Every structure is written in structure tokens, then in C-alpha cells.
Amino acid sequence: APSTMMYMNSQYNHPACNKLLLGPNLSRDGKHLSSSSAVPKAPKAPEKPLMAYMRYSKKVWDEVKAGQPELKIWEIGKIIGKMWRELPSADKQVFNAEYESEKGEYQDLMKSYHNSPAYQSYLQAKGRADVIEAENRALERDESCISIEPADDGAGDTDEGFSVKHVAAARFQRNHRLMQDILTEPTIVPTGRSIVTQQRYDILKNQVQSLQKHQQKLQDELEDIERSHAGTKRKWKQQGTKFESEMKILKTITPQEFYVEYKKKQEQQRLLREEMEKKNKEEMEAKAEEERKLAEKAAEQKEGEEGEIEKKESIEEEKEEGDCKNIKELKQETEEMEINQTNEDSKEEKVAETEEMEDIGHEKEINSKEPTEEKQVDKNKE
User: Fold this and answer.
1) Is 235 inside a domain boundary?
2) Could you tell me if 61 and 24 lie in one domain?
3) What are the C-alpha distances in Å from 213 to residues 42, 43, 207, 210, 217?
4) Which residues bind DNA (predicted)?
5) pLDDT in tens, 112-163
6) How does the average pLDDT of the chain come out, rounded?
7) 148 and 33 in one domain?
8) Rounded to an integer, what distance in angstroms lies between the CA atom of residue 245 and that of residue 255?
């Protein structure tokens, strides 16, 4: 049955730039493929063994994540990397041994995988698909001219692995696309990839600023290096000039004159050295004197502070002694007052007792006088 095709425009692109072809046995770029040219999926290969670091990371990942759940993935990876670098060699050797043992098994599995019938059939199908793709690229190589070439009559498949109908369909698709590219308007709607969001713009802006700062830093370092190099170069030039002048002088004088000049230089150096030593000694003595004065001042200040502290302590002790004396005097006064009070109370009690005794004796006297008087009255009556 003839293949039916339909064009679908995407929501961003102009139809002249990007066309989606719908139809049986059509690839993304419009080529007519047969069922024999479709590349099958490769059989699943054996899994590669994990490296020693990945094994260690897999082992401690959950532990680190549980200990610090607020960290991000890259921060956890940074911590695990530091732990791996600080891990002893003996512990690392365990993970390396596991990797090496599994690596040998993996190599044996890969050999059997490459020799398996499924992988060999996959390679053959991939080779056929590569041949067809190369032929299609050869057909589309000359895109500058527009022509519809007649297809040669023939039945069956060609020796190259594709039929005459497939070649005719590919040529038709190519010519149709070229004609539409020329006849359509040149206005093109921008794709979605060219639209930059504000978030993406901010990220790019921060990256540009970071690169500018890094460039400025490198430029400053380069200027420092150049200044250092210029100073070193100037120093070497001065030393070279001085050496040349000394050589010229040596060429013009005799050995005796050179010996005299040498002695003079030695004497000058000795004097300079003695002067420097004297100056250093004076500076050290002045520094030691200053330190001694500071130490004496600190000692005097410390003694004054200690004297003030002792004075305060003595004043506090005197206050405490005075308070104790006052307390003792008050205690004695209170005791004396209590004793006096008790004595007065006892005197009052004795006085009260004597008064009571006197009252009782007076009453007895009165009572004893009354019957005698009554008896006298009775006698007088009689």
C-alpha cells in the first residue's frame, strides 16, 4: 500500500525549519526505512563493578545523611570524599580488593557477552543500518539544485540492501523539502531554546560577574609578577654594571694597588660591621633598659595594688573587730539589764510578801482585840 504522509508543525518552529513527518516506516528526518534497516536494541551488557571509592560512598552515604539531613547531595559527596581521603590505607585496600575480584569476573562476562549470538546479530543489524544511512547521506549531499530524478525500473531489492521504492521515496522527500525551503517566507519564529527566562538570565549574569572577578584577580597577579620580574631584572642589571666597572678598574691597576684597595675595603667593611654591632648593642641595651623600667613600674604598680588590698583588708578586719566588740558590749549590757531586772523583780516580790505578812499579822491583831472588847462590854452591862 502507498505510504501516506502528513506534516505537523511544532508550536515554536516555522514549518520550513522543522517538520514532523507522520506515516508508516518514516524516520525523524523523513527517510523511508524498511523493517530490515531498523537497528534492534543491543542486548543488556553485564554491569560494571563499582570502584573502591563508590563502594565506600555507598556504604557510608545513609549514615552521613542520617547524621546531617539538612545537607544537599553535593555537600554530602564532599564530606564523603574527605572521609575517603582520610581513610587508612588498610581500610582502602579492602574496597580495592573487592573491586579487583569483581573486575576479573566482569572481564570474563564481557568476553562471553561479545561472543554471544544475540550480540553478533546486533552488530550485523547495526552494520546494515549504517550502510543505509551512508547511502541516504550520499543522496542528500547535493542540496543546491532542485530536481526530481526518475527511478529506474526494477523489481526486488538491490545489492546494497534497499529497494527502488525506498530510494524513490527518499528522493521525493528531499526534493519536496528543498522546494518548500525556497518557496516559503523567510520569516522564522524563534525556537523555545532561544527564549531565556529571568532565572536563567540571573544565573548567566552571576557567572559573568564571577568570571570577571576571576579575570581581574588573574590580571592583578600577573601585574605583581611583572613588577617583581622588573625589580629582579633591574637588580641584575645594576649588579652587572657594577661588576663591569670593577673589572675595568682591575684591568688598569697593578696587583700591589689591588692589594691596597682590597685592604681598604676590608677595613671599611670591618668599621661598618663594628658600627652595626655597636648600634645593635645600644639598641638592645636601650630595649633592655626600657623593659627593666616597665618591669619596675609594673612591680611598683603591683605593690601599690597589693598595699591597697592589704589596707582594705585591714580596714575590713578593724570593722569586723569593732563590730564584734560592739556586739559583745551590747550582749553584756543586755545581760546586766536582765540581771538587774531579775533583781528588781525579786525585790518587789519580797516587798510584796512582807506587806502581805504585815497585813495578815495586823488582821490577826484586830481579830484578837475584838473578842476582848466584846467581853469588856458584856462585863460592863452586867
Assistant:
1) yes
2) no
3) 49, 50, 10, 5, 6
4) 46-114
5) 888 888 888 888 888 888 888 887 777 766 554 444 444 444 444 444 556 7
6) 78
7) yes
8) 17
From residue 206, give the alpha-carbon distance in Å to each of 38, 195, 217: 46, 18, 16
Provide the number of structural domains found in the chain.
Answer: 3
195, 214, 244 — which closes off a domain? 195
Write the DSSP assignment of 66-125 as a string of letters: HH-TTS-HHHHHHHHHHHHHHS-HHHHHHHHHHHHHHHHHHHHHHHHHHTSHHHHHHHHH
Nearest-angstrom CA–CA distance, 64 and 215: 37
Cα–Cα distance for residue pair 43/121, rounded to 1 Å: 10
φ/ψ of 254, rounded to 5, equals: -85, 165
pLDDT band for position 239 (cuts 50, 70, 90) = very high
Position 236 pLDDT exceeds 90: yes
Same domain, 133 and 191: yes
173 and 200 together in one domain: no
Asked whether 23 and 42 are in contact (CB, 8 A), the reply is no
Burial of 341 (0-12, 13-18, 19+ CB in 10 A): exposed
**Domain extent at residue 38:** 1-43+127-195
Residue 208 has pLDDT above 90, yes or no: yes
Residues 55 and 68 grouped into a single domain: yes
DSSP state for residue 17 in the 8-state scheme: T
Once rounded to an integer, what is the mean pLDDT over residues 230-251? Answer: 90
70 and 214 part of one domain: no
Burial of 113 (0-12, 13-18, 19+ CB in 10 A): middle
Nearest of 96, 104, 162 to residue 132 by alpha carbon? 162
- Report if residue 287 sits inside a domain: no
Tell whether pTM > 0.70.
no
Is 350 contained in some domain? no
Which band of pLDDT confidence, cut at 50, 70 and 90, is reported for residue 277? Answer: very high
Are 99 and 55 in contact by the 8 Å Cβ rule? The answer is: yes
Domain limit, last residue, from 236, 252, 268: 252
In this structure, the answer to whether residues 235 and 90 fall within a common structural domain is no
* Phi, psi angle pair for 337, to nearest 5°: -65, -40
Same domain for 139 and 248?
no
